[in-house]
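User: For a benchmark we're assembling, each entry needs the component sequences followed by a predicted structure for the full assembly. Here are entry 17's components. Please fill in the structure.
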Amino acid sequence: MWEKLLYFDRRIIFLLIGAAVLIPFLTQWTLPHGKITATTQSLFDAIEQLPVGTPVMISFDYGPSSMPEVEPMAKALAYHILSRNLRLMAVTLVITGPQMADRAIIPVAKQLGKKYGKDWVNLGFKPGGAVLLTQMGESIKRAYPTDARNNPTIKLPVMTGVENYDDIGLVVDLASSGAPTTWIVYAHDPYRVNMAAGVTAVEAVDYYKFLQTGQLIGLLNGLKGAAEYEFLVGRKGFGKLGMASQSVAHLLIIVLVIIGNIGYFTIERHRSRRR
Amino acid sequence: MPEPSGITEILGIPTDIIGLWVAALLTLAIYSFLYGDNPVYKFAEHLFVGVSAAYGAAIVYHQALVPKLVQPLSAGLIQPLLAGNPAAIVWSKATLLIPGMLGLLIFGRFFRGYQWLSRWPIAFVMGLGAGLSIPRSIQSLILEQMHGTMQPVWPLTGGGFDNLLLIVGVVCTLAYFYFSLPHRGVMRWLSRIGIWFLMIGFGAGFGNTVMARISLLIGRIEFLLYEWLPTIGIHLGGPGIG
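Assistant: Structure for entry 17:
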């Protein structure tokens, strides 16, 4: 019996997972909120403490493949920054970043009546990674002579008084790759700019060590981090809705893992008895 | 300042509706792989690779090459040329011309007999990368982490127990990877405890991976339900999110 259960068509598991994700959407079922993770709260608090008008930089280092996890964070963060009348500067180390920045910020800016060039700017993509971050430590306007819309950055009101990292209140790297490490190594440590990160859950495990050392002051972990941040800023978003599906799918996977393990050990015991 | 352009139409159909349909059909094409490998999946996969490469090339050209090289090079070019003084151009634009030429050498790979030329820009990038990264990485990823591990363990109630656990975890995991001594006696126990820490770490990693992969599925289902289905008149009472 166990052998049949362990080796059944895996497409049945795909169907079960699909149903587990779909049903909460169809029933509009949401879960009550638990305790906010300390790493999410610390990022929220850091933004709350910035004086009005302080420039905050978000690095959009993700692409369409990780959008479901990171974009809810980006929207909630953009909402928090712009609603507090802080200046928002979007940069990116990856080629898909400029479009991700526009997708996340434009609806939020429209909702809050914020103007491009005055309240926020998308500086776009520049190659170079470490070299670019080092150059920004000297001069952000020299690293970005134009923004993503080809406007000279020197003429943008949002860039007034912004020379280098000394003028940035906080850098938040939203990433699906190793980009936060690059930011820590080449921006935080040499120039001591405050840094936080929001990453996909796969990547999150790699970044907890930077919280221990103070190299990151906050960390958003996947869709859960996004849902928590949406709750903190009081904005209904995709993160909270997605967490119900996430929880049902997790329960299903836990049950499948338990069944798989019981089956494995039962079969092994039978085999050893036969020997 | 102008924001990205609004809706335009193709054959009377708004481009955003066309975009939604392309995205929805490609999503379904990719998920068809769950049933089994098939030509529709292969088509979507190849299309993705091609579009990604072209998109990358266009972004690099418009957002890096043009503002960083083409525009600064072309600015102030006419006057010295009219004055019959090309040397002045070379001299004033040396900081652009040299990297530009170095970049062009990479295309030597396409010409038989000139492949060796591409080694120069590669050597430059590798040298620069190593020079930048080695000292900075040692500082940020090793020394700072060592500093972060050296935390007070007393009193145990004020975070001291967490610090103790951290130190035990680091020491035992390092012991597991220390192969210059045989894993006998104390080393055996240390490395065994190290394995437990590693297993807990892998478990946390796997849990996070599950959450990430399910999130991607949730994202696609949300797109199909609340963005694509309404274009064919099926409204499921969307979540009303921004």
